[in-house]
């Protein structure tokens, strides 16, 4: 429920605080006192259009702040949490401000949010019925949902099955469209994969083969130079055994140096160490010389083998250029392609399975949607009669509300039906959509009748009505008050009225009064006690607060209302 509303610089209101209670709250005041600004302020709190002309002349900004008690852990609290806001001891603080230049700001739970967020939250908090406010039940989706709740289990049970089947139907339809509309692309992809796999299979590369062949080609291409170098190095280390004369080789020189030190090593340990190192060097160089001799004999130019290696490398390079940065990457591509090709080849079977499921789901949806349409039409007839009966008591005896259920050709998320509330203002008039078939005051009464009938079926915590009693009086006004009180048994109701017959049924009566300079200040909004209510109702009845006849009539109205509550 809306617990408190603070208003600053809105219309004639300079500053006001409305402390609201559960049940039926009524706001009265003399014409021009600013009571309609109460409805305007609530409309702004819940995302209504920001009109800079509503800013009080001379003020830079108008501000409305509301404190709303919400269910902790409920849907609204979850939305506030998603927006980054917080609750204040179980209450949601909503703030809306409008600058005189037309800029609007909104805060939800202490966090600045887009105005659209207020509208989103308002769907679960309040229904504002005022001439300049968007009517919640004028939204087509709300009308269908409200009729479904009014219908009860006769719609709820098949609707649950329909929604589940509809969701699966959409998934299957989407997947079928993907598979069938992309048949050419899939065939092209499969052909490309087969070609690539055949090409790789023909070459049959092995892991790391490209690196091994590169090294082998390098060796074969330089075989003569490698053999010459190895031979020259061997001769430098060990000498040429076929030569009769020549320079001493490295092994001979190292051996001579070792022998020179060996002769005197007994005289100095340091020199003996050097002799040992020279012995190791002789052995090491001898091993290297032997290996070089063997290498020189093994290296042999083989043009045929070189050509074969180069040809193999060319084949691998062709694969690498197309399918990966090296042979290992090519093999990985082939592995992935085999899996993808298997998936593509199985699509035809999958298409047949999906088509069969699609046909079954279509049949199921056809049956369920027909059941929904029948149940909705039956509920629509009952709802039309109930709302029309309410209008008769609300001084619209010739008006008729028609709940039109129109099946469409295509399946929708909640069936095939379009639901629209229509009003025939008088006999012979064609039923028109609510916003076209009623004036502002009539529309508020129609909405009241609908909300009373929907009470419990379309639960909203707070209802706000402005000018619901426009153009009526006497008995019809009493009936309006009685129905507002009935609605207040299941929700908070806030009503701006000029009729004492309506105000008498309220649980709390607020009066808006201007100060002498035409402003509404903080002390100008007062919650009346019993005596105050009698005085205010007397003023509304006779124009005089102290009229004895007016006071007697006021007391009688209060007594009648109290007895009926």
From TrEMBL:
May be involved in recombinational repair of damaged DNA. The keyword ATP-binding applies. Keywords: ATP-binding, Coiled coil, DNA damage, DNA repair, Nucleotide-binding. Belongs to the RecN family. Residues 344-390 form a coiled coil. It comes from Actinoallomurus oryzae. InterPro entries: DNA_recomb/repair_RecN, P-loop_NTPase, RecF/RecN/SMC_N. The gene is recN. Residues 2-517 form the RecF/RecN/SMC N-terminal domain. This is DNA repair protein RecN.
């Amino acid at each position: 429920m809306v617990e408190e509303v603070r208003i600053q610089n809105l219309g004639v209101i300079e500053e006001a605080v409305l402390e609201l209670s559960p049940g039926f709250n009524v706001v009265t005041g003399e014409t021009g006192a600013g009571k309609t600004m109460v409805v305007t302020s609530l409309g702004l709190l819940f995302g209504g259009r920001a009109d800079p002309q509503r800013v009080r002349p001379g003020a830079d900004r108008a501000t409305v702040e509301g404190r709303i008690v919400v269910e902790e852990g409920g849907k609204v609290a979850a939305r506030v949490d998603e927006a980054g806001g917080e609750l204040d001891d179980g209450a949601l603080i909503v703030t809306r401000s409008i600058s005189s230049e037309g800029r609007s700001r909104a805060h939800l739970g202490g966090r600045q949010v887009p105005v659209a967020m207020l509208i989103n939250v308002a769907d679960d908090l309040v229904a504002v019925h005022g001439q300049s406010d968007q009517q919640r039940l004028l939204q087509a989706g709300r009308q269908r949902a409200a009729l479904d709740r009014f219908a009860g289990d006769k719609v709820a049970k098949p609707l649950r099955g329909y929604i589940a089947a509809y969701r699966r139907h959409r998934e299957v339809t989407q997947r079928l469209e993907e598979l069938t509309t992309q048949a050419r692309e899939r065939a092209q992809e499969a052909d490309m994969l087969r070609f690539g796999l055949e090409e790789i299979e023909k070459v049959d590369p092995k892991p790391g083969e490209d690196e091994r062949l590169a090294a082998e080609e390098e060796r074969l291409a330089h075989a003569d130079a490698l053999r010459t170098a190895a031979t020259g190095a061997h001769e430098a280390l060990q000498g040429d055994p076929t030569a009769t004369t020549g320079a001493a080789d490295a092994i001979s020189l190292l051996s001579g140096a070792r022998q020179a030190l060996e002769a005197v090593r007994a005289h100095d340990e340091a020199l003996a160490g050097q002799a040992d190192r020279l012995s190791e060097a002789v052995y090491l160089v001898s091993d290297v010389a032997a290996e070089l001799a063997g290498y020189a004999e093994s290296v042999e130019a083989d043009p045929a083998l070189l050509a074969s290696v180069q040809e193999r490398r060319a084949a691998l390079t062709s694969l690498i250029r197309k399918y990966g940065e090296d042979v290992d990457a090519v093999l990985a591509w082939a592995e992935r392609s085999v899996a993808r090709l298997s998936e593509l080849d199985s699509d035809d079977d999958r298409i047949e399975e999906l088509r069969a499921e699609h046909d079954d789901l279509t049949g199921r949806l056809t049956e369920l949607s027909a059941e929904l349409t029948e149940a909705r039409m039956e509920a629509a007839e009952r709802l039309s009669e109930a709302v029309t009966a309410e209008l008769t008591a609300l001084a619209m005896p010739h008006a008729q509300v028609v709940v039109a259920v129109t099946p469409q050709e295509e399946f929708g998320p909640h069936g095939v039906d379009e639901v629209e509330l229509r009003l025939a203002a008088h006999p012979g008039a064609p039923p028109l959509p609510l916003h076209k078939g009623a004036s502002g005051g009539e529309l508020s009464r129609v909405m009241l009748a609908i909300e009373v009938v929907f009470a419990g079926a379309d639960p909203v915590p707070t209802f706000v009505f402005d000018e619901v009693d426009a153009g009526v009086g006497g008995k019809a006004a009493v009936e309006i008050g009685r129905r507002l009180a009935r609605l207040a048994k299941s929700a908070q109701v806030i009503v701006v009225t000029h009729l004492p017959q309506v105000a008498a049924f309220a649980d709390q009566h607020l009066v808006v009064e201007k100060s002498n300079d035409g402003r509404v200040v903080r002390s100008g909004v007062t919650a009346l006690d019993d005596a105050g209510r009698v005085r205010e109702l007397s003023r509304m009845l006779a124009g005089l607060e102290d009229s004895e006849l007016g006071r007697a009539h006021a007391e009688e109205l209060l007594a009648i209302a109290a007895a009926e509550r």
